[in-house]
Structures are given as C-alpha cells and as structure tokens.
Design a protein that fits this description.
The strands form two sheets. Strands 1-4-5-6 form a four-stranded antiparallel sheet. The protein contains six helices and six strands, in the order ββββββαααααα. By secondary structure, the protein is an alpha+beta fold. Strand 4 and strand 5 (about 70-75) form a beta hairpin. It folds into two domains: about 1-95, Rossmann fold (3-Layer(aba) Sandwich), CATH 3.40.50; about 155-380, Helix Hairpins (Orthogonal Bundle), CATH 1.10.287.
C-alpha cells in the first residue's frame, strides 16, 4: 500500500524501487512489478453490515521497472503522483501521517504512549486514535461547543430562575385575577339590575306623569268652573245693587203726583177712629215702607255678606289651586328631568353591558396566552440543547 500511495524506497526499507521486482529460480529477469489497490465507498448499517455506494469504486495501480522508474494508473488510465495524491486526500486517506496503517516500527512507540496528552503539544494514545479515526478535527469544535454549552447552561439557569419568579408572580396574581373576574361579574350583574331598576323607575315616573297631567286638567277645569261661578255671583250682585238703587230712588219719591190733590184735601189729623188724616197717612207710609225696606235691606245685606264670603272662599281656592298647579308644574319639570336622566343612564348602562361582556373573554384569552407563553418558556428551558455540528449532518 505504501508503494501504491507513492512512498519512496527508503520509506519502505529498500534501497531501490527495483528491489520490489520478484526474482526467483522460476521467475528470473522480470521487467516490472505492479500493485493495485481497489477502493469503494460504503454506508454502514445499524446491524453491523455495510452497503456499497454504486459507481463509487475505483482502482489505483503503480508499476515499478528495472530502471527504478514507476508509473501510476487510475482505473487503467495513465496518471501521475500528484493526481493520485490529490484523489486519495479527497477520499480522506491521510498520506501525511500514514494513519491508514500501522508500520512495524510504530508498534513499540504506540505501546509507550500515555493515555492522554499532558500538554497542548504532546500526543497521547487518545489523540493518536482520534487522529487515525479522523475525529481530531472535532476537538476545537467540541471545545467551542463546551463553552457554548456552559453559556447555555448559565442562560438556562437564568431562564429557570425567571420562570420560577414568573410562576411565583403568576401564583401571587391568581387571587387578584379571581377577584378581578368576580368584580367584573358583580359589576355586570349590578349594571343589569340597575338597568331593570331604571326601566321600572321610568315606567313608574311615566305613570305618575300621566296622573299629574290628569290632575292638572281636572284642577284647570275646576278653576275654570269656579271662575265662572265668581263671575255669575258678581253679575248677580251688580243686578241686586241696581235693583236696590232703583228701589231707593223710588222710595225717595214717596209722594206720587196723582195723590197730591187727595193729600192736600186731608185734614191734618183724623176726626174719628175710622178717619185718616195727613198725619196718619204719613205714619202709615213711613212705617210700612220702613219695615219693608228694613227687611229688604237686611236680606240683601245677608246675601251680600254671603257673596263676600263666597268670593273670599273662591279667591282662596283660586290661590290654593294656583299654588297646587305651580307645585305640580315644578314636579312635572323635575320628573321630566329625572326621566331624561334615567333614560340616559339606562342607555349608558345598556351600552356598557356589551362592552363589559366583550372584555371578559378578552381578558380570559389574554390570561390563557400569558400562561401558554410561560409554559413555552418552561418547555424551552427543559429542552435546552446544543445545535448540531456542521460535519455531523
């Protein structure tokens, strides 16, 4: 193999390459000697067997001649040392250290190796095997990966600590969350009851408004009727005053013009019990008229006082009814304002209920998302591992 891979005669414990040509009694004066090495790429299987890669096989051959010259062939095609060396190195054959085989002189040297190198420039049995196997190229990457692993472990410790703090904070907020949810539910229930109360108050106030308007209409009709009665009383009083004035005027004209002559013929005083003189005549007229007038005057004064009492009563009633109407108007205005406020409050409560109902699932979803993020952080911290090395793919 050393011959095929281009080693010189001295490296194979020979003086000349031509010494490799066979020489015996039956085979004398042979002109050349050739060695062929067959290569093929394989894939190792899990069961310990292997599988050949189709089209990957090739043959390298070297021929030595009597004149100590040699030729190289790749798949029976003439080649040279440079091309052969390049192809072998491309296939992973270590021609610099000859790690593809152990020479006889190296056995004792290997047996004296320490298990592991003591310094950066030493080589122990572990480093020797890694060099043969080809895993020494991973040493630097393993060191870097170890540093990355240490950094990731530190980072993981920080993340775990953060997760624990987050869990502690989450557990501490659990009661606050429950209180907030209960408060939101109670607030929602309160608003619903407040809406119902506002509707009932609105209906009750509307009923009272109808009653107030009915009472106002009744009072206005009663006031109108009382005013009519007062006007009629005033009219009757004026008529009585007119009649009284006429009667008094007529009373002043006691003596009628038709009776003047008869009166003028009367004797000053009656001569007998059945006679009537001027004096008896006057006494009769004055007494009779005086009684009638006194009776009539008394009656009319009584009626007048009655009218005055009724007038005072009607005026007081009118005053009270006006005050009552004013109070009812004020109450109507306050009730109208209260109805407007209740209507506005009812509308605001009605509009606020859907908003609060919409917030409840949003808050619950937000809490679920936060818990999911926390679980993801915990899972990532548990599954923290190194990324695969490029040459291990």
């Amino acid at each position: 193999m050393l011959f095929v891979f281009g080693k010189r005669a001295k490296q194979m414990r020979l003086n000349k390459v031509s010494e490799l040509i066979h020489n015996s009694t039956n085979h004398q004066n042979l002109s050349s000697a050739a060695v062929s090495v067959h290569f093929q790429e394989i894939v190792d299987l899990d069961d310990g067997n292997y599988e050949a890669v189709p089209g990957s096989d090739f043959v390298i051959k070297r021929v030595a001649f009597r004149d100590n010259s040699s030729k190289y062939y790749i798949n029976d095609r003439s080649s040279n040392f440079t091309e052969v060396t390049k192809k072998l190195k491309e296939k992973g054959v270590d021609l610099d250290n000859n790690r593809f085989l152990i020479l006889q002189g190296e056995v004792e040297q290997i047996s004296l190796m320490k298990p592991k190198a003591q310094g950066p420039h030493d080589e122990g049995f572990l480093e020797y095997l890694e060099d043969i196997i080809g895993t020494n190229k991973y040493v630097e990457k393993i060191d870097e990966a170890s540093k990355d692993l240490e950094a990731l472990n530190d980072k993981r410790s920080g993340v775990v600590q953060m997760v624990k703090l987050a869990e502690k904070e989450r557990d501490g907020l659990e009661n606050v969350k429950n209180e907030a949810e209960n408060y939101m539910l109670k607030e929602l229930s309160h608003l619903k009851w407040q809406e119902k109360a506002s509707k009932l108050a609105f209906e009750d106030t509307s009923t009272k408004m109808v009653e107030v308007e009915t009472n106002i209409s009744t009072l206005e009709e009663s006031l109108k009727s009382d005013r009519g009665k007062i006007q009629e009383s005033n009219k009757t009083l004026k008529e009585l005053e007119t009649v009284h004035n006429k009667y008094m005027k007529r009373h002043e004209e006691i003596i009628d013009l038709g009776e003047v002559e008869q009166i003028s013929l009367m004797k000053p005083k009656a001569q007998g019990p059945h006679d009537e003189g001027f004096l008896e005549y006057l006494e009769d007229i004055i007494g009779t008229n005086k009684c009638e007038l006194n009776d009539d005057l008394k009656t009319r004064k009584d009626k007048f006082r009655e009218f005055e009492r009724q007038d005072v009563k009607y005026r007081e009633d009118l005053k009270h009814r006006k005050q009552k109407i004013k109070k009812l108007d004020d109450k109507l205005e306050k009730d109208s304002s209260k109805i407007n406020d209740l209507t506005k409050e009812c509308e605001e409560s009605t509009n606020l209920i859907p908003q609060l109902e919409d917030k409840v699932p949003k808050l619950q979803n937000l809490l679920s998302l936060e818990e999911k993020v926390l679980e993801d952080i915990k899972e990532r911290s548990k599954g923290c591992s190194l990324p695969p090395l490029p040459d291990e793919k």
